[in-house]
Amino acid sequence: MAELAFTKYEGLGNDFLVVDVESADALGPAEAQLLCDRHRGVGGDGVLLVAPASSPGASARMVVLNADGSRPEMCGNGIRCVALHLARRDAVREGTIRVDTDAGLLACSVTTDDFLGATVGVDMGRGVAVGRYLGEFRGEKVEFAQVSMGNPHAIVFGRRYSLADIDAFGAQVNAAVPGGTNVEFAQLLGAQSIDLVVFERGVGRTMACGTGACATAVAAALAGQSPYDAPIEVRLPGGPLEIQVTRADLAVHMRGPARLVFSGTVSEGFLSRAVGQPSPLGSSLLGSSQGER
Fold first, then answer.
1. Does the pTM of the predicted model rise above 0.85?
2. Which end of the chain is more exposed for a tag (fewer CB within 10 A), N or C?
3. pLDDT at 272
């Protein structure tokens, strides 16, 4: 019986199952849902498929499947985990790794420590201001800045909400915006320091969101609340990310950690039962579990 080999990584507590595949469609939404189930599966915020690259100079292609099976355009914490995975695969202790994503080709500068963890800097592309969204929560009008980082974000500053309210309001805004959106609840601690909690489209409230931190820094810079061309510390529940926004073109650089958690396998039969039909994995599986922690 075929087995699906995976390696679990985390970036500031945002955790993913990274799977080497020969095709970007090797896993479907139902299989991703089962794998991410924290009670009946392995558990994770998403599955990251590492497929062959399509761009010259790229090491691989990253495809993201959220815990609900949806496919977002980009994942900032996920790409750091994939960069570490590729560094381990190719025995790169320090260097630049380029990764194809649904949001374009991104360059990652990787410095590994004990080869189970790394600090990864990523050129995340340009932030794009796409307008405003006016929401309402418990009778109060709330304005969100909308920013794209290849995926959509709606950011509100200066309003304090309980975690239960973030869950409720985040889900409400995500459902109201066509196509859905990530929702950021931000508190400015100073010109170069932001507290942030993110309700992620397709996942819910998470420990960290890399693209959310980038979008929030862009929104703060555009509003004149944070500086351009200087590091901004974005503090998420899982820890801090360093974000820098270029004044000239809103290009964003993100720097933060990634860490290997463990490797393992699940049987093809396990996944087949999830969808009630034969798994599409077949010969698309690559690699094997090394059982390292």
1. yes
2. N
3. 78
Question: pLDDT by residue (tens digit) across 116-143?
Answer: 899 999 999 999 999 999 999 999 999 9
Residue 214 a catalytic site member: no
Q: Which of 75, 81, 108, 214 is catalytic?
A: 75
209 classed as catalytic: yes
Let me know: does 253 contact 230? Beta carbons within 8 Å. no
**Residue 237 — very low, low, confident or very high, per pLDDT cuts 50/70/90?**
very high
CA distances to 208, 231, 256, 265 from 108, rounded to whole Å, are 19, 17, 11, 28
The burial class, CB within 10 Å (0-12 / 13-18 / 19+), for 171 is middle
Which of 21-25, 50-54, 248-252 bottoms out in mean pLDDT, i.e. has the lowest?
21-25
Place of tokens 């998470």: 206
Residue with tokens 């509003």: 223
Place of tokens 């299989």: 31
Tokens 């489209």 belong to 201
Q: Are 122 and 79 in contact (CB under 8 A)?
A: yes
Tell me the sheet residues that pair with 15.
Answer: 10
Rounded CA-CA distance 103/74 in Å is 6
**Which two structure tokens, joined as six digits, stand for 121?**
């800097």
Give 113's contacts (C-beta < 8 A, 6+ positions apart): 119
Region of residue 261 (left: phi > 0; alpha: psi -120 to 50; beta: else): alpha
Of 36, 108, 209, 214, which residue is the catalytic one? 209
**Which amino acid is present at 27?**
L
Q: Give me 219's structure tokens.
A: 């929104």
